[in-house]
C-alpha cells in the first residue's frame, strides 16, 4: 500500500534514504525518533490539531467553482489552503516542526524558502513559540518576493540572501544545510517540503496529510458520498501534493501532480541524489544538478520529493507539466471566474485542468478536487509586471 | 597510465617511520596547470594528495571550495575528465579523490571505481555517503581496489565511531569542527577531542581536516593526530592566481612545521 511508512532506511521503493554528511546523521536520527514518538502521542497530536484549528484556521473549506466548472465542463472543487493563516499550506508543516523543535529542546530554527511562503510560515511559528529563526532565500527570489522578505523580517526572522549557484531554492537549501552543520546541536532544520534526508519526506507528508484527510470528507459531502474522479496538486518539492494525495491514495481517485515545465524533475529528470535523498533530478551526464527555470519561485527546483518518484514508478500518481504562459492564463481565469486569486504555484495545477478538461486526460463531466495551496497576494507585483 | 600508489599502506609506513602526514587538496581542473600543482605538492613533501571532483551543490564546503568548484566547472572540468587526466600525473604519492555521491551514482559505482583504479587513483572520499548508505558503493570500490575514506565528526557517538573506523580504508578523515570547510582563525576545541577519540579507537592513520589553515594549526593538530588535510588555505591562494610554485611553497611551509614536531 502506497503512502504508509518508509522502510527502516527511510526509503519509498528505490527512493529516499539518508545521504548526509556524518555531522548531520545524529541530528536526523534524533529527529526521526522524536517524530516517531510525538506522532504516536495523543498529547502532541492534540496540541498540533488545536493550534491548526485555533491559530491557523483549520479546517479550510472546499469550494465548488460553479462558474469555472460550467466553462470547463468538469466539476472543479478547490481545497482552500489559501485561507489558512499566512496564506498557504506551509503553516501545517511548520506548526508540527516547531512543536517538535520545542520537544527536542532546541531553541533556533533554520529554514530555506523559495517563494517565501515557507519562510513566512516558519517565521510565524517561531514568533509564536519564542524560537530564533534564520531563513535562507536565493537572491533572485528575494527580488521577486520582496513582500514576503519584509513579512519575515517583521515577524522577527533573520533573512539571508543567497548569492551562490542559481540563486534560487536549490541554493537556499544548500546554505540552510551549511548553517545547520555548524549549529546542529542547538538548531532544528525546518525543511519546507517532502524532500531531504529521512525522516523529512515522511514527516512533512504526515504534517501535511491534514489537507488530504479534510478534503476527502469535504469532497464526499459535496459529491454525495463519492470521491472525486481526479485529485490534482502542483509539485515542486511536492508537499501540498503529498498531503493531498495521502488522503486519497486508498480511493479510486486518479492522482495528478503538476510540475512546472522548466523544473519537471519527474517528467524530464533521471534518478539522482541531492539534498539528502535519492529521487528524480534534473542533471547533466556528469551528475551536475541543472538549474530549474520557472515563473514560480516555489516550484523553481530541479528535484522532487522521493515519495513522488515512488508514486510515479508505481503508476499510482501521474505527473504532468504546465508552462509559464498557461499558468498566467489560469491565474487570471480563476481570479475573474471565481473571485479567487491563486498563487503562481497552484495556478500550475489549474493550468493543467484547463488544458486537459474535455480531453481523454480529463473527460467532460469528471469531478476534480484541486488543492489551492496558496493565495496570490505574494505574486501580485510579479504578475502585474509580467502582464504589463 | 599511473600505477596506483596504495593509500593506507603508504600512510601507515610513513607514520610508523615517525613522520606526520600531510595531505594537501586541489580542485581538479581548476586552471590549466592543475596537474603541476599536484606535482608541486608531492615535491614539497605531501604524503598523499586529495583531488576534488567539482560538484554543482557542495553542501559540506564553505565559500572558498564552493568558488573553486564553480570556477573549475566554468572552465569545463568534468569528473571523468579530471580522473582521466590523473592517469598521467605520475607523482609517486597516493591520490584520493573527493566528490559528492551524485557524481559517483551518475557514473555508476563499478564504472567509477574502475576509472579511478585505471588512472592511478587509490582512494575516494564521498562526504554525503554515511554508513547507512555505504554498502553498494563500498562493494564496488572494494572489488575495484579503491579505498573508501570515511569521515568522522565531533558529534559521532562512540559506538558509531567504532563501526566507522572499522569500515574506513586508507585513513580515517576526522572532521575537526562542526561546520563546513574553510579557513578559521584558530583550531576548534573539538579538533583535539576528536583526534584523541579517533587515536584511541583505531590503529589506522588519523588525519584531520576542516579549519586547518596555517603551519601553526597543522603542528597543533598533528600533536594529537597522525596528520592534517589542508584545502581552503591553498585554494584561496589558487583562486587569487597562485601557480604550482607558490602553492608548493605553502605546502613546504606546512611540511616544515610538521617535521619540527
Number of self-contained structural domains of chain B? 1
Q: Major sheet of chain A: order of its strands?
A: 3-4-14-9-10-13
Unreliable segments of chain A (pLDDT under 50, ≥5 consecutive)? none
Helical segment tally of chain A? 15
In round numbers, the mean pLDDT of chain A is 96
Strand order of the largest sheet of chain B: 1-2-3-4-5-6-7-8
| Apparent shape of chain B | globular
Question: What oligomeric state do the depicted chains represent?
Answer: heterodimer
CATH topology of the largest domain in chain A: Rossmann fold
Q: Please give the domain count of chain A.
A: 2
Largest interface: A-B, 37 and 41 residues
Name of the CATH first level of chain B:
Alpha Beta
Given as residue ranges, the uncertain stretches of chain B (5+ residues, pLDDT < 50) are: none
Strand content of chain A: 15-25%
Number of strands of chain A: 14
**Share of helix among residues of chain B?**
40-55%
Q: What CATH architecture of chain B do you see?
A: Alpha-Beta Barrel
Number of separate strands of chain B: 8
Straight-line N-to-C gap of chain A:
48 Å
> Level of helix content of chain A?
40-55%
